[in-house]
Amino acid sequence: MTFNPNADVSGNKARHRGRNTAIAGGGVIGLGAIVVLLMNMFGFGQFTPLVEGILGEGQQGQELPASEIAQCETGADANADDGCRIAAASLAIDQFWEENVTGYRPPTLTVVAGSTSTPCGTASNAVGPFYCPADEGVYVDPTFFALLRQQFGASAGELSQLYVLAHEYGHHIQNITGTMREYPNNGTGPSSNGVRMELQADCYAGAWVGAMTEQLDPNGVPYLEAPTEPQIADALNAAATVGDDHIQSQSGMVNPESWTHGSSSQREYWFATGYQYGLAQCDTFAVPAGDL
Predict the structure, then answer these.
(1) Closest among 158, 163, 28, 169 to 98, alpha carbons compared
(2) Chain centre to alpha carbon of residue 111
């Protein structure tokens, strides 16, 4: 388990929103699609048009009104359901950043049902979790994790899911603290601003995981249990899976000059750095290219 079963998670402000359809619902998904899925896992949704072209847009139903996450009151609920787990984790992540960023304001968190429109494109299980700077929103379709488990053999375990969420919150921190403005996109490559942005978000996620037992519910109960070694390994594996070199190797050619997210080893390294040493060691923009 990840959450303390008796933790009170009823105060989460996550909302369910979407249409009664899933873009990736029933078709055959080829190698090109899974590459896009993995690259979107920690990105900004920039590959949405491509993934929709591969998978097809499907039957778009009526947009459902935003609603609370049902049956998400305790840590036990969070341990039993992916959507509740994501909603509950937002409480701990927000508390962590409130303690570390002056004037912190939480992003909105939308748990997507099927698909929904956003200022950054369509949010769905086909696109994967992403952060949209335009509305300061984090979007996650929990069926994305089931899709990875059932169709692609990924573990997508509990801590791996929380790592994904914490990474997207890391992009929110970069947005509200001015990092995105200070280091705008300067192209691709192993030392580009885009890669440094992703590696810093990995480091931020690791720092939160390292402190995840310190956030308390209104009754003083820690939201989360200490991660086990297998859970940390699962999170590290998730970081490695979305490394640019790993993704590109699926097509037989690795081109570092086209990287946008960093190599597998870089992503593992920066998650581990945050986990072991905390936020003070997460300035990836101050690191020489050869040390990234």
Answers:
(1) 169
(2) 12
Nearest residue to 192 (alpha-carbon basis) of 107, 257, 269, 129: 257
Which stretch of 58-62, 107-111, 147-151 has the lowest confidence by average pLDDT? Answer: 58-62
Question: What number of other Cβ atoms are within 10 A of residue 189's Cβ?
Answer: 16
- Using the Cα atoms of residue 257, residue 258, residue 264 and residue 268 in order, give the sign of their dihedral: positive
Query: Among candidates 191, 81, 91, 201, which has minimal Cα distance to 143?
Result: 81
State yes or no: pLDDT of 73 exceeds 80. Answer: yes
Q: Is pLDDT above 90 for 122?
A: no
Residue 104 near residue 98 (C-beta atoms within 8 A)? yes
Mean pLDDT of the chain: 80
**Residue where the block lists tokens 């939160």:** 208
Pull the structure tokens for residue 286. 């101050």
Among 184, 191, 185, 186, smallest CA distance to 257 is for 191
Tokens at 202, concatenated: 């990995």
In total, the chain counts a number of residues equal to 292
Model confidence at 218: pLDDT above 50: yes
Class of residue 219 by CB neighbours under 10 A (exposed 0-12, middle 13-18, buried 19+):
exposed
**What CA–CA distance (Å, rounded) separates 92 from 78?**
13
172 and 107 Cβ atoms separated by less than 8 Å: yes
Residue 39: the pLDDT is 47
Provide the phi-psi class of 278: left if phi over 0, else alpha when psi is between -120 and 50, else beta: left
C-alpha 289/C-alpha 280 separation (Å) is 19
**Beta partners for residue 117, in sequence order:** 122
Which residues 6+ apart lie within 8 Å of 249 measured at CB? none
pLDDT tens for 179-206 read 999 999 888 888 899 999 999 999 999 9
